[in-house]
TrEMBL record:
Swiss-Prot/TrEMBL GO biological process terms: 'de novo' AMP biosynthetic process; IMP metabolic process
Main location class: plastid
Family matches, as SUPFAM superfamilies: P-loop containing nucleoside triphosphate hydrolases (SSF52540)
Keywords of this entry: Chloroplast, GTP-binding, Ligase, Magnesium, Metal-binding, Nucleotide-binding, Plastid, Purine biosynthesis
Catalytic reaction(s) noted: IMP + L-aspartate + GTP = N(6)-(1,2-dicarboxyethyl)-AMP + GDP + phosphate + 2 H(+)
Subcellular location(s) of the protein: Plastid, Chloroplast
Cofactor: Mg(2+)
Family statement drawn from the similarity comment of this UniProt entry: Belongs to the adenylosuccinate synthetase family.
Binding residue positions for Mg(2+): D74, G101
Record-linked PANTHER family: ADENYLOSUCCINATE SYNTHETASE
Residues at the catalytic site: D74 (proton acceptor), H102 (proton donor), K202
Source species: Tripterygium wilfordii (Thunder God vine)
Record: residues binding IMP: D74, E75, G76, K77, N99, A100, G101, H102, T191, R205, Q285, T300, R364
Protein name, as recorded: Adenylosuccinate synthetase, chloroplastic
Length: 486
């Protein structure tokens, strides 16, 4: 599908700083309008007007709750985790590694970009757990800790790293790049942070875990096996005795520094549950990047969906309660892979700049498109979300009309009833759109749902109606306070 850009708009490729008064973004279209509905008022459209109402909403969350992504990542999970963490004792990461990029702001508006440290770290009373399902790059972890400490965020006694978590080495990152180069035109589009190679080491059972740092007598042999394996697989990977010696010496120092952080987090998490501590699980990436349920092979190497909570932290399914799905008011994707509702060309560029859609981890420009309801319903099915956090609604404020991708059809018009696993089918899919009116006004200062323009409320309520899950949180800016409780 092609989209015609208004001739009055000029795309400025220079860096744009985030402001509430962004330059206008106008979209024209030549899509067929499949259906236009005026959403009926949602029964869940209750305005939470007082602080006590908002507090009640948060405190009603289960003892063990989670925040997970509903798209291809980058939905803004970190901000919600940061806000909710004020009411939880523990925030835990259960999967992924430094390929996660969570941007949060403190009370003074200072920006923090986290990759391994859970987003609860800015809340002084919160303990942060890096679970067994996470792959840990120690140089990156210490760099984050040093950055936080230099900005007066104390980490001492506030971060636990699972003794069962696997170590991600610099060579894993090098192998990641070599593998992408080898794939040529069919490359995955990874962050090149070594995540896939590290999980590969884990699965073929020659990985090195955090607990191995306590046994430096056998550590060199284990590391030699890993490095030799990489050298035999990739001719471009140069490995010799000197590299091994240097890595061993480096990790001796890392082992000493990490020791105060190491814990049996499986025991700790289950003890905390029995002590009635409140636990918030922070997912990295998102369901559409899940190794099983995502657009394979253009996925991550872990399980960012609900099942990853239990396997990545060692807690029982029966203790997991409310899960909040985080979804942008539109859709973005980084890297390769199918993207049915993608907007190509200059109009996609304009949405990208309006939303400042550049990766927290890599800085790469994100691909942008309309909200994909088919994919969102699929994610809700898999995870059983109790509510949704709709983020970046303010980014759509300058549009005269907004589209929702509500159904898929094959080229011959045959309806596709579920999100397909077949990539060839996904690449040929035709998307049916509903077109809703825009609100053409700045909503970044709105703090009550009832104060949103009617068209903005219609958009939110139509999403609820189509997906069947209530939207309880609405993001209308990057700051901590830029959140509407619905």
């Amino acid at each position: 599908m092609t989209m015609n850009l208004s001739s009055s708009l000029v795309l400025d490729s220079s860096p744009i700083k985030w402001t509430h008064n962004r330059r206008p973004v106008a979209f024209s279209r030549n899509f067929v309008v499949c259906s236009v509905k005026s959403p009926s008022p949602s029964s869940s459209a209750v305005t939470l007007s007082t602080e006590s109402d908002r507090l009640s909403r948060i405190e009603s969350l289960s003892q063990v709750s989670g925040v997970l992504g509903c798209q291809w990542g980058d939905e803004g999970k970190g901000k919600l985790v940061d806000i909710l963490a004020q009411h939880f004792d523990i925030v835990a990461r259960c999967q992924g590694g430094a390929n996660a990029g969570h941007t949060i702001y403190n009370a003074e508006g200072k920006k923090f970009a986290l990759h391994l440290v859970p987003s609860g770290i800015l809340n002084e009373e919160t303990l942060c757990v890096i679970g067994n399902g996470v792959v840990v790059h120690l140089p990156g972890l210490f760099e984050e800790i040093d950055g936080l400490e230099s900005n007066s965020v104390s980490c001492k006694g506030r971060i636990l790293v699972s003794d069962r978590a696997h170590l991600l080495f610099d060579f894993h990152q090098e192998v990641d790049g070599l593998r992408e180069a080898e794939l040529a035109k069919s490359f995955i589009g990874t962050t090149k942070r070594g995540i896939g190679p590290c999980y590969s080491s884990k699965v073929i059972r020659n990985g090195i875990r955090v607990s191995d740092l306590r046994h430096m007598d056998t550590f060199p042999q284990k590391l030699d096996v890993l490095l030799s394996d990489a050298a035999s697989r990739f001719p471009g990977f140069n490995y010799g005795p000197e590299m091994l010696r240097e890595e061993v010496e480096t990790y001796k120092r890392y082992a000493e520094r990490l020791e105060p952080f190491i814990a049996d987090t499986v025991h700790f998490m289950n003890e905390s549950i029995s002590q009635k501590k409140k636990i918030l699980v922070e997912g990295g990436q998102a369901t559409m990047l899940d190794i099983d349920f995502g657009t394979y092979p253009f996925v991550t190497s872990s399980s960012p969906s609900a099942g990853g909570i239990c396997t990545g932290l060692g807690i029982a399914p029966r203790v997991v309660g409310d899960l909040v799905g985080v979804v942008k008011a539109y859709t973005t994707r980084v890297g390769s892979g199918p993207f049915p509702t993608e907007i190509l060309g200059q109009e996609g560029d304009l949405l990208r700049f309006a939303g400042q859609e550049f990766g927290t981890t890599t800085g790469r420009p994100r691909r942008c498109g309309w909200l994909d309801i088919v994919a969102l319903k699929y994610c809700c099915q898999i995870n059983g979300f109790s509510s949704l956090n709709l983020t970046k609604l303010d980014v759509l404020s300058d549009m005269s009309e907004i589209q929702l991708g509500v159904a898929y059809k094959q080229i011959d018009g045959t309806p596709v009833k579920s999100f397909p696993s077949d990539l060839r089918l996904l690449e040929q899919i035709k998307v049916e759109y509903e077109v809703l009116p825009g609100w053409k006004s700045d909503i970044s200062s709105v703090r009550k749902y009832s104060d949103l323009p009617k068209a903005a409320r219609q958009y939110v309520e139509r999403i609820e109606e189509l997906v069947g899950v209530p939207v309880h949180y609405i993001g209308i800016g990057p700051g901590r306070d830029a959140l509407i409780f619905k």
